[in-house]
Amino acid sequence: MSEWQLSETFRSTSGGVRWGSLGHSGHDPVVLLHGTPFSSYVWRAIARALALRHQVFVWDMPGYGASEKYAGQDVSLAAQSRIFTELLTHWGLEEPLVVAHDFGGAVSLRAHLLHGVRYRALALVDPVALAPWGSPFFRLVGEHSEVFEQLPPALHHALVREYVSSASSPGLHPAVLDRLVEPWLGDLGQAAFYRQIAQADQRYTDEVQDRYGEIGFPTLVCWGEDDTWIPVAKGRELAARIPGARLEPIAGAGHLVQEDAPAELTAALLAFLQQPS
Q1: pLDDT for 79-127, tens place per residue?
Q2: Which of 71, 137, 153, 216 has a Cα at 20 to 30 A from 239?
């Protein structure tokens, strides 16, 4: 799985951000945002498919994947939405197409509603957007992150592996699971895993969720029907709050739709992104 490499670095206020692009520079730009506890790796197949018609930008958020991780790092939704705004400026993208999963959904929504970033269209995939969010496990870890951070490496590895596995409905290929877990191992990775959970405060979505009615560009909400992390009912509620938004349920997929139903998700995204604005 070593073929997925991000070759560029953007120096942000929360550390080095690894990013890359696929496709031709003259094509319509699409930016992909990952969720937690994942990285741009989950977009690899879909990014390559979209790159046949678009220039596709991918990035690992600070504290995730191949991007920098360090003690005291700000990896909150507030920091990530600010850095996303800075990245769009760095890339010279004024009104791109955006596809955002999970935590990345909240990042894209905050960037638009709080930082004035415009999108030509926005596709949200099982996003963190409406309260309440966070499983009982997620909240438990957030409240006691300093305890979990001290787990022996073998126990930590088993915990992260089980947690990531639960995002898939049919189950992840072992090599894919290894790749998703790997950034969270070792001293830096283990501390970073609990840091990002400790900073995942619901107030960052509370700030914007009553403003979703202000969204004025085409919006698609895709949702895995078997998502046990955030139920599909939240997708129906979110689509109802955004003017003109359409809900696209995806059968047989859990929270990690990119892995569970990549063909179905790619087809939905291609059809949506090719529509006239």
Answers
A1: 999 999 999 999 999 999 999 999 999 999 999 999 999 999 999 999 9
A2: 137
pTM, to two decimals: 0.97
Say yes or no to pLDDT of 259 above 70: yes
Distance in angstroms (rounded) separating the CA atoms of residues 53 and 234: 31
Nearest to 126 by CA among 12, 273, 1, 248: 248
Burial 140-173 (b: 16+ CB within 10 A, else e): ebbeebeebbeeeeeebbebbbebbebbbbeebe
Q: What is the pLDDT of residue 1?
A: 42
- Residues in Cβ contact with 186 at an 8 Å cutoff, skipping those fewer than 6 apart: 153
Q: How many residues does the chain have?
A: 277
**CB atoms near residue 117 (< 10 Å):** 21
- Distance, CA of 194 to CA of 37 (rounded, Å): 10
186: left (phi over 0), alpha (psi -120 to 50) or beta: left
Q: What pLDDT shows up at residue 134?
A: 83
